[in-house]
Amino acid sequence: MLARCMGVRRRRITVAVVAVVMALAVLPAALASSGQPAAATRIASTTPGPSAPASGEQFAIQVLDSAPIPPSAQEWTAPPPAVLDVPPQSIGVSGLIDLHELYRVDEPAVLGQGNPLESYVVGHLPPGSRITGGNSGFGPEGSSTGFFASLPTSGPNEYLAQLLYETTANTGGGYVLRIDAQVVWVSDRSGADTIPLPVSAELTGYTTISAMNGASGPVSVQLGQADSARLAAAVNALPLAPQTVCAEGSLLFTVTFQPLSLSLSPTYSVSENLCGSTVEVSAGTTSLPALSDTGCTLRRLVAGLLPAAAAGTRGTVADC
Question: Rounded CA gap, 112 and 122, in Å?
């Protein structure tokens, strides 16, 4: 059995931090081949601690440590096969962190349905994980096949976590296995960017929502002070989001918050896009950091405040 406790041995981990913005539709499904950055090698303990990770790198280490590896796997110490020299997939989002390990598995490689590696991984993934897709390819550098798993996240900083498995036949028998942990971690939100209370809110939803054709048929309602405060509090509670650019998307709703005090506080504008569940916020003419509504808390609240005529916006809650 391959020892995973750092008291027994230390694991070699290769770290790559990606800062890219690519076109994508919906973030969890936006896996696409891309060039990879140079990697830096480091030694790091991967024993999970009792507390939540304090940084993106620590989060990635914990995700990689949770990756199931076959009992017969041994650390691969030679240079990686060319076909496994880079991650098999990446995603279009800034701040992606990638850690990987390589192993030699002295078992026959079985592809497709009944793959013992995939069956083993599925049976040992952390609760709440799921297989989200597969990959296979061939070229001058060789052939490879693999699959991807999405892992659950928690807390305001953990935006994305996934494991990527990729294999290629070993000339000495069995196969070489590459495991990547890819995560997106966002920093804590500044309290200075919150919407001050009390406010009056005007909410606009849409009768039709389409990723290809956008939103149409605006339906606007003026909210009372209590509902306005609930909506502002929901926006203030959202975590930051990494920056993404969508090839396709649709405006889900907009909210205009008008301060009720006599201060010089500006009008706040809030909108959410179907692509990546990203919430855009501006204070007057100043754009504030984007927020993440992947948990659909803001979208559900908005849907409950809109009339039935805004069927497009209300219907997107079913996609959460």
Answer: 14
